Amino acid sequence: MIRVENLKKSFGDHEVLKDITVSIAEKEVVVVIGPSGSGKSTFLRCLNRLEEITSGHVYINGMDIADPKVNINKIREDVGMVFQLFNLFPHKSVLENIMLAPMKVKKVSKEVAEEKALRLLEKVGLKDKANVYPESLSGGQKQRVAIARALAMEPKVMLFDEPTSALDPEMVGEVLEVMKELAQEGMTMVVVTHEMGFAREVGDRVLFMDGGYIVEENKPELLFGNPQHERTKAFLSKVL
Amino acid sequence: MDFRFDLIANYAPFFLKGTLLTIGFSVASIILGTILGLLIGLGEMMRNKKLAAPFRVYVTLFRGTPLLVQIMIIHFGFVPLFIGETNVYISGIAALSLNSAAYVAEIFRAGIQSLDRGQMEAARSLGMTHVQAMQHVIIPQAFKRMIPALGNEFIVLIKDSSLVSVIAAPELMYWGNAMQGQYYRPWEPYLTTAFIYLILTMVCDFLLRKLERRLATE
Description:
The structure holds two protein chains of two kinds. By secondary structure, chain A is of the alpha/beta class.
């Protein structure tokens, strides 16, 4: 589903991703952990080319998005993304937030888009909030709307960029619950997070990143239970 | 000092004509200047620096030289060059809108750049093109933020339209000057003129505040 080969990313002289090669299978849930500044968010943002790729290849369903000729908008329809700060559109109601992209990008009719949006809101437990504006929602509710908004495009992969990092502790659970449900339904997911409990419980594989490399990857029970590298051990001893 | 209201009454038809023309100049220039300003602002923000350069030069020229000088150059230079004769209406509207466009472009640019980068990223991550994201996500939000600054610009424009009296466009200031010339009295013509400008700018301010409130509650 996703194949990354020798991906490198620099901001000016600063090389953030040094050489990343990894594959992610369909229906796999891959959790990316690592200290801040390790490049994990940048890695995620290269998967839908929100960051221009300096060198290497990123294949999404066989299409290399590092190729400037590829229609990136078409590929992004299949790659949903959820952001740390939600990035809901404040001038649109919850329902309109979810309906916008299907109507404008996929040219779905208003009726179909609305029905779909309501179904997704029900799924994330916010059907009663359809007509309010994002500013009146709590952080956890905002993030659940953001997930519904991404799902409305019927993506094949979902990218989560620290989806619970900006939330008050009591709201983390409701967002993780939605993500867990999504994983159980077979969604392919790449999740950058500091929630080790989620990684352990939901992840099929955990990548530990540090200094622009994937230092270690393994099944969660093995990576957490028996880390091989010194840096992994040092990191886990601090966060667990 | 005796204040002669009867002289003002005598001149009322001229003031009325002048006021209507001032409104005409202002409305036309606000509309044209805003449209042009939006386009120039978008031009300034183009990622290709070479393509953006002419738009920056435009803003520098029109913000960096006096409107009065621009009116003269347009009226005695460009308008005759293009249509073969002078025309105060064309010159007035052209000068006011071209000048205003430079300021609107900067207001527009500031409005867009004040938005969080995440808004564009969220729109693009959903598969929208840059143009769709601008149209549906960025510009509507930027516009709301622009309204107070834009209102300020409109008020400045209404007042600055008085400058076209120097090319004898028969607007409000022109008739104020004419009345002063006829009676050799300073107070009646100029206080009347000032009072009418004040009404016009207050109405403009009122309408914009109403719009701002309506957009805020939407």
